[in-house]
Amino acid sequence: MAELTPAVALQAYETMVKIRKFEETVRDLYYEGKKPLFNIAGGPLPGEMHLAAGQEPAAVGVIAHLRKDDVVVGTHRSHHLAIAKGIDLRRLASELLGKKTGLSRGKGGHMHLFDATVRFSCSGIVGASWPQATGAALAFKLRGFDNVTVAYGGDGAANQGTFHESLNLAALWKLPVIFVIEDNKWAISVPKSKSTAVTRNSDRAVSYGIPGVFIPDNDFFAVFEAAKEAVERARKGLGPSIIEVETYRFYGHFEGDPQLYRPKEEIEELMKKDPIVRVRESLIKRGWLTEEEDRRIVERSEKEVKDAIEFALAAPYPDPKEALLDVFASLPSQEWSPPDIGLPTGERPVPMYKAIQEAIAQEMERDPSVFVMGEDIGVYGGIWSETAGLIEKFGPERVRDTPISESAFVGAAVGASAVGMRPIVDLMFADFIGATWDQIFNHLAKDHYMSGGQFKHPVVLMMAVGGGYSDAAQHSQVLTATFAHVPGLKVVFPSNSYDAKGLMISAIRGDDPVVYLFHKGTMGLPWMPYPETAITHTPPEPYTIPLGKARIVREGKDLTIVAMGLMVHRALEAAEILAKEGISVEIVDPRTIVPLDKKTIINSVKKTGKLLVVDEDYLSFSVSSEIIATVAENALEYLKAPPRRLAVPDTPIPFSPVLERFVIPTVEKIVEEAESLAKKRY
Ligand SMILES: Cc1ncc(C[n+]2csc(CCOP(=O)(O)OP(=O)(O)O)c2C)c(N)n1
Ligand SMILES: [Mg+2]
């Protein structure tokens, strides 16, 4: 925490001057080469541009109290925050211009600034910062560090559900996070009076039993004092606070914004109350700043900004092929090795739910950065018993029951993993991803890429999938394609206990986000029917299975069936029946959908000449489509008949058992389809 000494005040003033110079310079540059003026793609500075001139006190007044290893998470309007946090100006300017020397080597741009060295990130998604800063604060608390985190958001962002979920979570868990609302009174064209039911967002703190202060009139000194108290409180472990700063947006929402929604007089009035001019006057009045020193500060700032922009303009663009890099932190080795054959056998058959528990427990034992959170995962042990017994071993801090706030706790995993934790998040049912999809597909999946490889999210998102027990359309989906379609997510889908354990350990140890799906019908739960073949020998010691390596569950020569999860076992049952008819079926279980072991599938089809994909996900635009496309691209000439797929026929999953059996692939349907395919020839 800083005291307002002359040196600290001068430093803060200089940072504000530098921010303003940066924004003014970027603004001028933005319009260069743009014809017409609002041509978003023209000139050296492409894309959208949201500038923060006028909002300097909210940035500098708070961040002045932070250390380099504290975390700041910002928004689409974040240059001022990044500069206050100490980001390198040359790399910042380069990133804005999409250059190789940029923070993310041109992969993020102005709305997605990442700098791991000063622990700064921001997002173009309004309201995303709240849970992420909350998660980083959770990481610090779990590790016993005294770091704090600051989440920034606008008056508009304070109406997102994430804001309220995060406040509840942070207050409940007494996390060292400060929620700063930059109230510039506008969310694009919508005035706060038309979007927010309360006059002051700081009053919302009452609902969560935490302090909330409102700083009127963009007053740097008042922000500084309020932040000092909030940071002190957070560092002492006393929990979160809200600081709402009434601030001014000098320019439009974005550059090119004609601002027809706000009166010109408002802008003129704001300019008259320029916060930097007011700080300067105050410093001069206090005798802390002379006109001479002020000139030097302005000159220094101008020089630094000019140097950064010139550096960025002169810097090279990245090699276009770099667009393909950084999707994942690690990929399977290029060396392909033959797949495992058959289901594991041995003297230790373990149901899948126990294999998952065992894997998590062993990794938690080995690595203190691993922790689990989700709904009902503590004393209850997870509704699929996947976390049973963990709380007794590791306690409620590391086996953390959460409120029903999927956005907040998945976002928290994003934030916690960015500072070195390895969260396992239990989402209960895959169907619930809708409540947190933004954190999954815009952040968890993309941050590694957008940060040019700086931010890693080693998060395991585990969840149950599948139907067959009349839980209907919102509790029975498989959704493999939904996840697999998003670049940056690995997708794991074990079909048996042995694979479940080895894949879980690999997922936890890897540096990429992994969606870990388990089928309810393979878990081996006493209250849910399951095939005996899902319960396999599972060694007691920890072991890994590389992601991207299929298993040939059964060898055959007439027909290849590719199946995942419960469908592997239905295919096995079907294969037994077909064998009696003299049809020899080979079954390939990809085990991981992303990365997909294409080669094992292709090799199998080359051998059998026939392909049937059995998929419990929806039929169209699916993993089954992808597998067939892969085979068509690589082994079309080997096919002796058109490939087929058996999947849910693009309907939601119905409730009534007779209806449900009609849409989900059954053993009978697999037999029927395979028989007909076996007979088929071009
Ligand atoms: C989830 C989401 N919804 C909508 C948008 C489009 N959008 C970008 S900025 C913005 C207004 C944000 O207002 P506020 O939070 O007050 O921040 P300010 O722009 O005033 O700094 C909107 C609606 C978005 N980027 N993300
Ligand atoms: Mg606003």
Summarize the structure.
The chain has 682 residues and is an alpha/beta fold. Helices cover 39% and strands 15% of the residues. The protein folds into three domains: 6-313, Thiamin diphosphate (ThDP)-binding fold, Pyr/PP domains (Rossmann fold, 3-Layer(aba) Sandwich); 346-537, Rossmann fold; 551-679, 3-Layer(aba) Sandwich (Rossmann fold), CATH 3.40.50.920.
Model description:
- The chain folds into three domains: 6-313, 3-Layer(aba) Sandwich (Rossmann fold), CATH 3.40.50.970; 346-537, Rossmann fold; 551-679, 3-Layer(aba) Sandwich (Rossmann fold), CATH 3.40.50.
- 39% of the residues lie in helices and 15% in strands.
- The protein contains 23 helices and 24 strands.
- A seven-stranded mixed beta sheet has the order 2-3-1-4-5-9-8, with helices on both faces.
- Strand 16 (490-492), helix 18 (497-509) and strand 17 (514-519) form a beta-alpha-beta unit.
- Helix 5 runs parallel beside helix 6 and helix 5 packs across helix 14 (406-418).
- It is elongated, with a radius of gyration of 28 Å.
- It starts with 5 loop residues before the first helix and ends with a helix.
- The site of magnesium ion (MG) has 6 residues, from strand 6.
